[in-house]
Write a structure and sequence with these properties.
This is Agmatinase. The protein is α/β, with parallel strands linked by helices and 291 residues long. The chain has one domain: Ureohydrolase domain (Arginase, Chain A), CATH 3.40.800. It contains eight helices and ten strands. An eight-stranded parallel sheet has the order 4-1-5-10-9-6-7-8, sandwiched between helices. Helix 6 runs parallel beside helix 7. The longest helix is centred in the N-terminal third of the chain and has 17 residues. 54% of the residues are buried.
Length: 291
């Protein structure tokens, strides 16, 4: 059982359609067991749902209304607290189920390590998988203080699984010297500091391929998103991230799944981070899955 069958929490705005009739499934991954600085992202998925109630159902960016899309909010997964390995296995199994059922997975984290099992599931299904990674941090470490299961390792693991030449990172402004050396020498694509402009240059090269997109909310400057576990000064604005999401939507690439991670409500009493995240998710719902 992946979810509490008695789950009765708030769903993402208009996300109350049944699983069977929906082609998009939203699911929360409330895991923050490996964070290296400030925990709390396990509360992110539900807070993003609560913030979504303030959204308009219509997007002027996409010129679409949420009533035009069929999506189901499954709630938060029942992950065994403190057991990262078992939690990752459960997330992978659920992602595999969604893929088998023909659903578009849209995950909400949780720490960034939760992206790794979804990519493993995607890799089993799709040949020539590419990954777009939007983040402040490189996440290219092999381990953190001896622990290979860490929120600082998912993109390194992804490179080793699908090949670094198939990984495209944007907005990176923090990491060990060795991480940046690996990016340079391995053949992966890394755009430092900026997102929208370099992303637009890359998107035409990804047409015809399955693409998974992962967004860490800390790509935003802390002025726009203070509610995250590892805030990093010098980030992009909410406007630029919206521009990037729109660029992906209008590019014609085949996005097969996505996630948004690292919203950590305890550090943002104003809820501006959750409010921004809910808007980004609305745009992802309306713009990324195949019509």
């Amino acid at each position: 059982m992946f979810f509490d069958q008695g789950y009765s929490g708030r769903v993402f705005i208009m996300g109350d359609r049944s699983y069977e009739e929906s082609n998009i499934v939203i699911f929360g991954m409330p895991m923050d067991y490996t964070v290296s600085f400030r925990p709390g992202s396990r509360f992110g998925p539900n807070r993003v749902r609560e913030a979504s109630i303030g959204l308009e159902e219509y997007s002027p960016y996409m010129d679409r209304h949420l009533e035009d899309v069929k999506y189901h909010d499954a709630g938060d997964m029942l992950l065994p607290f403190g057991n990262a390995a078992k939690s990752l296995d459960m997330i992978e199994q659920y992602a595999e189920q969604l893929i088998t059922d023909g659903k578009f997975p849209l995950g909400i984290g949780g720490e960034h390590l939760v992206t790794w099992p979804i990519i493993r599931a995607m890799h089993k299904e799709y040949d020539e998988l590419a990954v777009i990674h939007i983040d402040a941090h490189a996440d290219l470490r092999e381990e953190y203080e001896g622990e290979e299961l860490s929120h600082s390792t998912p993109i390194r693991k992804t490179c080793e699984l699908i090949g670094p030449e198939n990984v495209y990172s944007f907005g990176i402004r923090s990491g060990m010297r060795e991480e940046f050396q690996y990016a340079k020498e391995s053949g992966m694509h890394m755009s430092k500091f900026e997102v929208a402009a370099p992303l637009k240059e890359v998107l035409p090269t990804l047409k015809g391929r399955p693409v998974y997109v992962t967004i860490d909310i800390d790509v935003l400057d802390p002025a726009f998103a203070p509610g995250t576990g590892t805030a990093e000064a010098g980030g992009i604005s909410s406007k630029e991230l919206l521009e990037a999401i729109q660029a992906i939507a209008h590019s014609g690439i085949n996005v097969v799944g996505c996630d948004l991670v690292e919203v950590s409500p305890p550090y943002d009493p104003s809820d501006q981070t959750a409010i921004a995240a809910s808007k980004f998710i609305r745009e992802m719902i309306l713009g990324w899955p195949k019509k």
